[in-house]
Amino acid sequence: MSQRLPVLEAGRGRRRRQRRWPRRLGFVVVVVAIGIAALLVLMSSRASGPANVHAATNPVAPRAARRPAPHTEYGIKLAPASEQVRANPKHLRSGLLFDVRTGAVLWERAPGRVLPIASLTKMMTALVTVAHSDPHDRVLITREATRFTGSGVGLLPRGKRVLERALLYGLLLPSGNDAAVALAQHVAGTQDDFIAKMNAEARAMGLRCTHFTTVSGVVDKGNHSCASDLALLARAVLANHLLARIVGSRSAILPFPIKGGKLYLYNNNPLLITRYLGTNGVKTGYTTASGPCLVATARRGRAWLGVVLLNSFNTTGQAEQLLNAGFAKLRR
Predict the structure, then answer these.
(1) Hey, CA dihedral for 149, 155, 160, 162, is it positive or negative?
(2) Same domain, 253 and 327
(3) Are 256 and 146 contained in the same domain?
(4) Residue 282: is the preceding peptide bond cis (ω within 30°)?
(5) What pLDDT was estimated at residue 113?
(6) 3-state DSSP call for residue 305?
(7) In the chain, what is the straight-line distance between the N-terminal and C-terminal CA atoms, in Å?
(8) Do residue 211 and residue 90 come from a single domain?
(9) Residues 283 and 178 grouped into a single domain
């Protein structure tokens, strides 16, 4: 027995070593499997990485991310409470005081209320005209342009061609309905086609309460906007160098194919008439349905403020009240 013990021990040692190989082989298989799985995960993350980055930075975000926050529609936003102005103008259906440079709203009253806007319509008429034509164009004056109603230049020579730039002055200073018709026909052929361009531009600008049924504002039905949209329209007009120069003019003397060869025009913006300090735009409007309306801007040093008044009891007094309060707030 004592002589066989080493043989038995040797046999046991061989059997133990034989048992270890399956264990080692299983361990190796597990390690390799883990390595392959890790490699696949790494490759997958690299492949999906750019797509994830694109999803995080792509401006076309999910619908919830694209919803504007309160008071950020129409390119304007409510200023912090510390910058807002306290005012209470009487007999005003809707209004807005805003910073022309930043769009910050310093004061508001029902800024999204949809109301008829009369000749404030002509701000869009001017924008569409300069976007689709050249100010040096010669515009044919048709019979339709001379048979206008409401305010007008009144001296458009039927059958002759007039410089477009002169008609833009006639559109924006004395609020010429005849100039609006002539420009619309020149740009689009018909008033209806021009109105379609106006509404397309309103959609492109994100104006959510604006719709046009007339090139001049003489028709109230279906022709409407709100103070928020009009503030953005005013900023767009002032961003165009030609239109900014026109709406900031108290008067103009222009070459014109009439007797005497010159056309004298005067701006009916009440703040320009009263020479309110710094006034440089923009447009007035009035019909029985809209009541007196005004979009006016004034600039003093680095401060540049605008006011929108819809159906106002006193456009001059209320505009001055709000602008004075705004300039005083900025100085403080």
Answers:
(1) negative
(2) yes
(3) yes
(4) yes
(5) 96
(6) strand
(7) 112
(8) yes
(9) yes
Q: 62 pLDDT band (50/70/90 cuts)?
A: very low
The answer on 143 and 103 residing in a single domain is yes
The boundaries of the domain holding residue 22 are 1-67
CA 268, chain centre distance (Å) = 26
H or E element that contains 65: helix 63-66
Mean pLDDT, the chain, whole residue set: 83
**Which position among 77, 94, 119, 249 bears the catalytic label?**
119
- Answer with the one of 39, 67, 95 that is the final residue of a domain: 67
Helix axes 122-132, 227-239, angle to 10 degrees: 40
Q: Are residues 111 and 259 in the same domain?
A: yes
| pLDDT 10s digits, 256-314 | 888 888 999 999 999 999 999 999 999 999 999 999 999 999 999 999 999 999 999 99
How many Å is the Cα radius of gyration of the chain? 35
Residues 59 and 93 both lie in one domain: no
What is the token pair recorded at 35?
Answer: 């390595």
* Residue 133 annotated among the catalytic residues of the structure: no
Which residue among the candidates 122, 197, 283, 329 is catalytic per the annotation?
Answer: 122
Q: Quick check: 229 pLDDT over 80? A: yes
Residues 176, 281: Cα–Cα separation, whole Å: 16
Q: Assign residue 109 the CATH number of its domain.
A: 3.40.710.10
Catalytic residue status for 197: no
Average pLDDT over residues 91-101: 95
From 20, 52, 67, give the residue that closes a domain. 67
Q: Is 251 a catalytic residue?
A: no
Cα dist from 217 to 119, 122, 145, 202, whole Å? 5, 7, 15, 15
One domain for residues 107 and 26: no
**Cα 226 versus chain centre, distance:** 13
Q: Which of 94, 151, 175, 228 is catalytic?
A: 175
Helix (H) or strand (E) holding 193: helix 191-204
pTM of the model: 0.77
Structural domain count, the chain: 2
